Each structure stands twice: as structure tokens, then as C-alpha cells.
Amino acid sequence: MKNLVQTFEIINKFFHIQAEENFSQSIFGILKELVDFESGYIFFTNPERLIYSYNPKIKNISEIKGEYLKENLLLKNTQYGTLIITGKNFTDYDREIFKTCALIIAGITKDIEISKIIKIQLEALQNINSEIRKSEEVKSKFLSHVSHELRTPLNSIIGFSDLLDSEFTGTLNNKQKEYVNDIKIASIHLLGMVNEILDMSKIESGTLTVNLSEFNSKTAVDEVINTLKPLILAKKLNIVKDVENITLKSDYLKFQQIIFNLVSNSVKYTPENGEIKISLVKEKNKTILCVEDNGTGIDKKYHKKIFEKFEQAGQHKNSTGLGLAITKELVNMLKGKIKLESKLQKGTKFTIILP
Length: 355
Known about the structure:
alpha+beta, Beta-Lactamase, 2 domains, 5-stranded mixed sheet
């Protein structure tokens, strides 16, 4: 059994895995330094499929026999996948370490999947005509630099703060818990700003494409809410959800990004102890998503202006001015419509209508 210092040195290797590396070999190689096992698998649940494996013996979860360890991969409190290792004679220490690693692997796996998409977009930028190639190469290098130099350490910060919050290394007092939560909130804010810049760059370059798949509506909404939970709890906001449990066929990542942008916008401009309502219903051949808050509201003269990039309405001056512009572009890509209802000091309601 390794001592605590050795264990942390090995765990720290997880946060240095890069998207261009062989993820299966990297993630399971590090895990094997901590727990001895025979085969390893990462299944995604929505839809269910085998994504990564180590020394694979099966293709479906139902085929697993004998002794194994299994942990759900969670984005906050919502499951999006399952991590499984098979072997013999697992100890209580193995189970505890495996549970801790699953928490870290969950965040890294999500980040790697997003990084793959970014890499595809960057590669697409290289296929432009020679007349604008130099300017596009500058943009490509900028995106690559931002992705590596900002996203990777930010996710490490969030990952380690989650590890501290779980009190794996020992019990925290109330003040320490407050500081850890402040770290998470600040990191989520900064990561959101970085993602907005990257998303707008991809939209402007024309490299963003629609990838249709079937997914569960409640899972999509719950993942977003749990990601924003530290910000919601910090302002003691009441989240009211009325989301029908239906199967949608759309672009999962873009659909989630739309919800994330609208809810985070409401969180930002709703006062403490306020309320945010999220509803999603299916009417005939349309899906209707509404995000409504009782926050500061938006003056009618700014209703069109706020959907333009780098534009901010009146008192709303503490953001990049990209979130709603990106949201409108994503809605257009999904062949939908976005509507705004708002008055000063009387809250805001965004309605998204998707086919």
C-alpha cells in the first residue's frame, strides 16, 4: 500500500493528460498504478456505448462477470457514464481509491471529449483558401493556446477543489469550506468566459457543425444545473424545474450550451434569494424551452441589441457580451427561434422554440 504522498503524486498525473494523447492508455495506466486490475471500461449512458477500454474482454456492461469495481461518472450529481474495472481480491483500500479516482476521471473525461471537438474545429480552420490562410492560422494558434494554457489549468483547479470539498484529505472547517467554494465559483466564471471566446471564434470561422443524436431532456437540463450549482447556492437562488421526461433529437452539446448560457445569465442578474424557473415541454412537433427569472430585467430599448456580440444592456456591464449572441447563433443552427420578454426590475423570460 502506498503512503499518502505517493498516492497524491500519482493522482496528480490525471490532471496532466492532454487531449491528443491515447486517453484509454493514459487514464487506465495511471489508475493501474493505484489499483491492480485486469480490464477497464468507460461506458457513456446517453446513449449507452463503450467509449474507452483497457485490455477489453466485453462490449456491453451486461456481459461483465466475476469480481469487479463500478462507479458512476458524474457531472456534479448527474450520471453521464460508468467506470468499471475487473480483477480479483479487491481490498477496501482499492475500493476507496477507485471511488476517489472516479470522481476525478469524470471531470477529465468530459473535458477530453470537449477538447476533441475543439481539435476538429482547429483542423477545419487549416482547410481555408490561401488568400486568408495567414489570418486563419493566427486564429488557430490563438485557439490552441487559449485551450491549453487556460482550460487545462482551470479544470485542474476545479478538479482539486472538488477533491478538497469531498474531504478525502481530511475534514475542513467552515472557513476552509467557504474558501474552497469561492475557488470553484471563480473558476467556473473564468472557464465560462474562456468558452464564450472560443465558441464565438468557431462560429465566426464557420467551422461549427450540427451533430444530431437522441438524448434525454431531463438529463441534459440536470447536467447544466449541477454544473452551475456552486453559483446558484452562493446566491441562495430557488430553482424551479418543470421539465418533461422526453427523448429529443438534436445536437446535445449545443442544446446544453443554450441552456447553460440562459441559466447562467439569469443567475448573474437575479438577486439573492431570487427564483429561476426552467420549463421544457413538447407541443406537437416542437420543443419549447423557457428560462424565467425575477431579476433586474432588461429595458425594452436593449432587447435587440443584447443579441449582438460584445453588446451589453444598460446596467449589465460585467460580462464578455458574447453569451446571448452565441445563444442566438446556436438556436439558428438548430433551426429554432428565440424570444425575449423583459421589463426593468420585473424579471426576464427567454423562450426557445426548436423543431
